[in-house]
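Encode chain A's predicted structure.
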Amino acid sequence: MSAPSAVQVRDDLLEAFWKRGLVLFGESVKQEYALNTPVFIDLRHKLYDDLDTLTELGGALYRKIMELGKDAASQQVIGIPDTATPIALAAALASRGAAKPLLYGQMRKQPASYPGGRAGSSCYMGVVDPTREITLVDDVMASGKTKLWSREQLKKEGLKVSRILVVVNREQGGDKILENQGIPVHSLYKVSELVSYYKATGRIDATTAQAALDHLRSRRFC
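Encoded structure for chain A:
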């Protein structure tokens, strides 16, 4: 491994991701998931078992949403199912006691149907209030397909998505596809920043870092 950089500023969230094995490189990916990829980001299984890290991630998302929507009267967060459902809830819970707490809504992959009732059939569970500024949250940005699907489902309910916020943008072009559809995309980290951090802190060497970046760049969606 490479020597840690003396000027690298510690990032507690990325440190927690590494400690929990949420970001893997090289042989570690094959050993854990039997996948032939030089980098794997999994903000699911091991994250949900670590409430401290989930809480820290929720706080980071909350702060980012407040930064992006500071001029809005009210903000709502919705997670793209299923991976981002607990992540979005963590962001809303992190805002408890704040002057402008995050409102919360939830989505399902399959619509719940109530024939004959006013609720009808919907993939959305929550209050429908068009005055709220909505942030769709997800774990990673790859192709953007699930983000487009989620936006269309919410549009059917009369809800407009103001932005999409992901934890890690894999920089494979999905953000450009969405932005061409008029949806602003933001992230806590770009994958190149994540790789640079782990290289600078001595977790991975230069060869491993380059292999991860080359792999992602060779699999762009646009």
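The beta strands are 23-25, 39-41, 75-79, 103-114, 120-125, 133-141, 161-169, 185-190.
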